[in-house]
Amino acid sequence: MDLETAVKLPISLALYSFGEGHFEKHHITSISQITSFLAQDHKFWLNISDLENIELLEDIKNIFDIHSLTIEDILNTLERPKVEVFDHFILIVAKMLYTRKGIEDLESEQFSIVFGKNYVISFQEKSFDVFDGIRVRLENPSGKLRKNGTDYFAYALLDAIVSEYYTLLEKVTDKIEVLEEEIVSEEKRVKLSEIYNQRKSIQQLKKVIWPTRELLSTLKKSESFLIKRRTLPFINDIYEQTVEIIENLEMQRESITTLVEIYMTNISLKQNEVMKTLTIIATIFIPLTFLAGVYGMNFKFMPELEWKFGYFIVWGIFIGTAIIMAFYFKRRKWF
Amino acid sequence: MDLETAVKLPISLALYSFGEGHFEKHHITSISQITSFLAQDHKFWLNISDLENIELLEDIKNIFDIHSLTIEDILNTLERPKVEVFDHFILIVAKMLYTRKGIEDLESEQFSIVFGKNYVISFQEKSFDVFDGIRVRLENPSGKLRKNGTDYFAYALLDAIVSEYYTLLEKVTDKIEVLEEEIVSEEKRVKLSEIYNQRKSIQQLKKVIWPTRELLSTLKKSESFLIKRRTLPFINDIYEQTVEIIENLEMQRESITTLVEIYMTNISLKQNEVMKTLTIIATIFIPLTFLAGVYGMNFKFMPELEWKFGYFIVWGIFIGTAIIMAFYFKRRKWF
Amino acid sequence: MDLETAVKLPISLALYSFGEGHFEKHHITSISQITSFLAQDHKFWLNISDLENIELLEDIKNIFDIHSLTIEDILNTLERPKVEVFDHFILIVAKMLYTRKGIEDLESEQFSIVFGKNYVISFQEKSFDVFDGIRVRLENPSGKLRKNGTDYFAYALLDAIVSEYYTLLEKVTDKIEVLEEEIVSEEKRVKLSEIYNQRKSIQQLKKVIWPTRELLSTLKKSESFLIKRRTLPFINDIYEQTVEIIENLEMQRESITTLVEIYMTNISLKQNEVMKTLTIIATIFIPLTFLAGVYGMNFKFMPELEWKFGYFIVWGIFIGTAIIMAFYFKRRKWF
Amino acid sequence: MDLETAVKLPISLALYSFGEGHFEKHHITSISQITSFLAQDHKFWLNISDLENIELLEDIKNIFDIHSLTIEDILNTLERPKVEVFDHFILIVAKMLYTRKGIEDLESEQFSIVFGKNYVISFQEKSFDVFDGIRVRLENPSGKLRKNGTDYFAYALLDAIVSEYYTLLEKVTDKIEVLEEEIVSEEKRVKLSEIYNQRKSIQQLKKVIWPTRELLSTLKKSESFLIKRRTLPFINDIYEQTVEIIENLEMQRESITTLVEIYMTNISLKQNEVMKTLTIIATIFIPLTFLAGVYGMNFKFMPELEWKFGYFIVWGIFIGTAIIMAFYFKRRKWF
Amino acid sequence: MDLETAVKLPISLALYSFGEGHFEKHHITSISQITSFLAQDHKFWLNISDLENIELLEDIKNIFDIHSLTIEDILNTLERPKVEVFDHFILIVAKMLYTRKGIEDLESEQFSIVFGKNYVISFQEKSFDVFDGIRVRLENPSGKLRKNGTDYFAYALLDAIVSEYYTLLEKVTDKIEVLEEEIVSEEKRVKLSEIYNQRKSIQQLKKVIWPTRELLSTLKKSESFLIKRRTLPFINDIYEQTVEIIENLEMQRESITTLVEIYMTNISLKQNEVMKTLTIIATIFIPLTFLAGVYGMNFKFMPELEWKFGYFIVWGIFIGTAIIMAFYFKRRKWF
């Protein structure tokens, strides 16, 4: 619980100071430099992508007066997405989900935001993130990001994260449609585990998006002075996006259940066909073989064997039986 | 977020000015003409079926004092149905569902309504809609549409949309009944994917109708001055229709589950029959063939072969065994 | 929406005027005759079994001051059961469910009640109803029906309807028990569709009884002056009956799921048996047939054929192999 | 509804008058004798196990001032468990569940309690009950039953009933464990219907225990002066027991679902084994039989037949093929 | 209900007296020694691992003024986890879950905590527990355990218990992943019962963790003076951990369902393969055997037998048919 002094690590701190008609990017090396920014009129965004420098976090805890459990929430990367409203700041723990290869390689990364009156501090687990768009927009002098407060900035970060969920949802949906195509057309042999991999991706998305929806719902109703009235419609907007995503995930989950059923039925149908082939062949030839066997017997006295056309009559019986059988199977729609 | 100036497109604006004892249809070409209508005593309906003319929407935003997120809601055709009550107007985002060919070709189209004290503006995604009936009723001088306010007009539009859902529900129901008939009678070979197509249609309907129900429930309780007390029973009426449709969809969904089970059982039963045929034939003839084989052996000393009636006795055994077997299968109800 | 003047049809109006120590039955021909009854001290019950006489309904609407949507609710026979409490009257829309042949021929009929201070008007879709018991009880001078108010009378009508649901529930339960008996005993071949027919009946009952339960719950809490305090326990009584029926329906639904599972398992078990029969016969005789075939070969030099007891030794091998096989199958519990 | 005078039946009334330092058992013959007890200081318990003596119930109704619907609730043995709090008494309708043979013969019996300031009247459907322990404890002079009020006595009765549910739950649990043991070990052939019988017992228990839980929850919150504050922890105690039982029933229900799945899988696995046996035998011997058949042909010119070691070469082929086949099946892990 | 005097058993009482700058460990032999500690300034933790010494519990009941039902709750080891807030103390009934061998040998042990202003008494069912970490931390002079109140101490105990749940969850998750690996790769033959054992572990965990979550939720909102404001975030912290565990359990449960489905499908696929092997062999050789049988017949007049190349022609037919059949099966993708 106590954040003891740890080994000093190369820290990665990116600080963007901004405001109407103002934008500066700093690469600070020590946390003490922040104090001067706090006193300024401008807002600033401090992005920390190094959760192992305990000393740094201890400093932040002291400067911004943060509860030690909050720091623990930020450090514990198994945390569920959640929001906590304190008197002088708001903590948002969110999850970035993205994929750098295919939908099967879903990566999850915890992203925590602490924002107060004029600062936004964000903590990311790995160095990769989904905020390049925001960095670009910050440089736009007339953009909303500069004009609005820290609450709008936090919204923008969350918006970027949720947009990524959308992208993933689309990838899963596409993949499921391809699988459906392949299964229904029966052209390519699909492995059941391929279907289940998609189910897993959906589960992972769902596990993240449900608490995110809750988080946004809490944020909407938080009534903190830090969230301005005019930012509420924007928060509501991403809230509705999460609802939309959840509904779509639910539909995709049902699609998968359906796919599995079709898959199973196809197996049954194929087995039926195999069985029919066997049955038709066996049912036709087994009796004929028996008859051939009869006339292969070596009894002394077998009158038919002496008949002149015996052999041909037997062939007639063979062919006749086969034809009758074929008709019978035809009528029962076996082929 | 900012609605920048876009290329000017041929716009499609239809404006109907109406009131008690008054009805005029205008084809306006520029949005500035609307201002004069706003000042009039009559109500008017402006229907816009061109969501790509950004400049037009920008004008509307300014004239009617609409939040930019509202315009985004109208433009984003992936929006869920919803209602938003503002001080001076109400936004309703609904979905038209219709089919111009068969139930398999379900088309979805977003339809947004913004209505204030004396205007109704509607935005449709495509040029097709389901409001021909309303256009006819507007021309009827003693009709309710003319007498009542804009809230009643908005109700009429929603009513037309929900009626279409009913029509679709009936089509799905009919199709499912046909499939049930075919599967139970086993006359026609139904493909499993045909059943699942219906399940998909139901899913699509459900996805639209659930939020529509919510929308209407919110509208009922909105307490906006824009919705008059005497319009409430009408809104409640379509609200109850959506409940009715949802219940029916649920029943149809269960019917499909049942159909799939019957389908699967039929496959199993058919396989059982195939297996029985094989087993009966094989079980009767395999032992007989063996016996025929025995007397086809070439041992020097095989006493039976010398018997005068050996051959006929063997035939007796053949026929006897076959009859006993047949009785055995009969008793076990195999055929 | 406007109830235009329609063709005059032969109307069927039955009016019962009653009160303590008073009972009269009238066959009125015109609705205007009702006005005189309204002024009387006695209560009256007007039962209308003709929903196509629009003029009549228009008259009723005017005399009793009923909203036009209420009349529509009465006319629209697809309405869900519901209650609506107005200032001077209460509307109850209920569904009679009954069967005149077997449980497979479930008939549904909408029954609406409008009751005020001293009148009960009921509208039925068809001429058949379930109220013969009420007509008899009305003639009993000391019965509760005469002594109590119109609320008690409405209760009595609903009670008769809900009792009928009970009867249907019992019929379904009996039928399911018969099916269970047949399936478990495997005596009679049951078709899967028979089981599903019962599921359908349950669905139909459920679809009606759920909103009826809601209706009664609303009625209990309505706090209308039209419902006297001492009638509440009676309403609560049928409310509890609906809860009881719903629970039983749920249990029956589960029973059906179980039945289907047993049915499926029986198919599998039967197939297993068929397969075993085939396998036993084939596994015993195929190797023997091979051996017989071997000694049926025509090689010049086959020493065994010359042996004196060759034939009998081979028979020994045949019988020995068969016995060993039989033991093997016995040990594996195949028969 | 009116409780008309019925035939006089031999009544079974047991009356226990008790209090601190006082206990008497009376066999009263007429209900009028009760009036004297009512005036006494002591409390009394009147147990009636004869619900067909209508006159008796009519008397009780009058003496204790009970609503006629309450009497109906007591008489209608299909009632769900419930509690009704009146001004001067509390009605509890509960269900005794017990088994006198095995868990398959679950018996249900309605048990109603009416208790006021100094009396507890109980009505049981049959003469058997689960209250012998209470009768014994009543005779204990220092027991809590004597010291506490009628609310504690009613609690004690309910406690005895709920304890019996526990016993039943344990019996079902034991039986399911035995079935699981038998199915997993595959030693004994279990019939699917045996599993489903347990599911039925669970359903029956659940149907009774859910409303009992509700009943106890209502009782806890009733705030009637008849229920003393110090009795509440005891009521809460059995309330928690019902919650515990419900959870366990839920777990047992899941266990059964699992059992059915294992059962089904076992059938499939067994079928697989049967099929494999057939396939191995047939696949080995059918080609060999063919070869034997070839050398059984009677062509004039068949060079192999003349070879000296032809016969032995063929045997070599027979054995070689069989060994290769066996290896093939071994490698595919078929046996 | 009355805790009668029982046989005296060797008691196991461990008492830790602690406070800021103070820590002592006592092995007391009689409960009367506790009274002196109660009067002290320091807090103390009394851990009792002997629930069969009734006399001891009776003493505790009297000294700490505890309700007899509370003692029953502690003694009844089938109790669900719960919290009860009394005026002068709080009772927490929790369950330790741990495994000393493998995840299949899950052990459950009831652990009850009673804490007041300056004492924490804990009751454990067996002598094993999960609190070694706490005992070590108590000895740390500057640790939070010593500085904070009894509420923080109770939190620490619960925290240790919930951490153990996490460990178990991880073990189950690992085991399921191993099973999934084995099933998908089809390398090792997995028994269905192994999968179901994991489902059982999940059920057991779920049964304990759900009420624990409730318990913590109640504790958070208890508003007892015994729980200080600064302890609330810590309680909330383990509350969120339980939510996290529940979600993960839910995901694992779904994984198991998926595993069972894959398992079933694998059985079906294997059966399909077996059937195909049989069908291919039988379909090729049965007709050939028939043909061989034909030329094994002993008819006097069979012209083909006299042909010089008859035998070779027949071999040609044999090989030709086999090749055609093989092509046919190849085209149908049977191998």
Profile the largest sheet of chain A: 7 strands, mixed
Stated plainly, the CATH topology of the largest domain in chain A is called Beta Polymerase, domain 2
Cα shape of chain A: rod-shaped
CATH class of the largest domain in chain A: Alpha Beta
Instruction: Report Rg of chain A.
Output: 35 Å
Seen as an oligomer or otherwise, the chain set is: homopentamer
Helices and strands in order, then pairings?
The structure is a homopentamer of 335-residue chains.
Chain A: E1 13-19, E2 22-26, H1 34-39, E3 43-48, H2 54-64, H3 68-75, E4 82-85, E5 90-99, E6 106-115, E7 119-124, H4 132-138, H5 144-147, H6 150-185, H7 192-220, H8 232-294, H9 303-306, H10 310-331
Parallel strand pairs in A: 3-7
Antiparallel strand pairs in A: 1-2, 1-3, 4-5, 5-6, 6-7
Helix pairs in contact in A: 6-7, 6-8, 7-8, 8-10
Tell me what the structure shows:
The structure is a homopentamer of 335-residue chains. Chain A is α+β, with helices and mostly antiparallel strands and 335 residues long. Chain A has two domains: 13-265, 2-Layer Sandwich (Beta Polymerase, domain 2); 270-331, Magnesium transport protein CorA, transmembrane region (Methane Monooxygenase Hydroxylase, Chain G, domain 1), CATH 1.20.58.340. Helices cover 57% and strands 14% of the residues of chain A. The first copy, chain A, has helices at residues 34-39, 54-64, 68-75, 132-138, 144-147, 150-185, 192-220, 232-294, 303-306, 310-331, and strands at residues 13-19, 22-26, 43-48, 82-85, 90-99, 106-115, 119-124. A seven-stranded mixed β-sheet of chain A has the order 2-1-3-7-6-5-4, with helices on both faces. In chain A, strand 6 (106-115) and strand 7 form a beta hairpin. In chain A, helix 6 runs antiparallel to helix 7, helix 6 (150-185) packs parallel to helix 8 (232-294) and helix 8 runs antiparallel to helix 10. The longest helix of chain A is centred in the last third of the chain and has 63 residues, at 232-294. The radius of gyration of chain A is 35 Å and the shape is rod-shaped. Chain A starts with 12 loop residues before the first strand and ends with a helix. Mean pLDDT of chain A is 86; it is low at 1-11. Chains in contact: A-B, A-E, B-C, C-D, D-E. The C-D interface holds C 144, 184, 233-234, 237, 240, 243-244, 247, 251, 254, 258, 261-262, 265, 268-269, 271-272, 275-276, 278-279, 282-283, 286-287, 289-290, 293-294, 296-302, 333-334 and D 1-2, 67, 69, 72, 78-80, 82, 189, 192-193, 196, 199, 203, 207, 260, 263-264, 267-268, 270-271, 274-275, 277-278, 281-282, 285-286, 288-289, 292-293, 295-298, 302, 304-311, 314, 318.
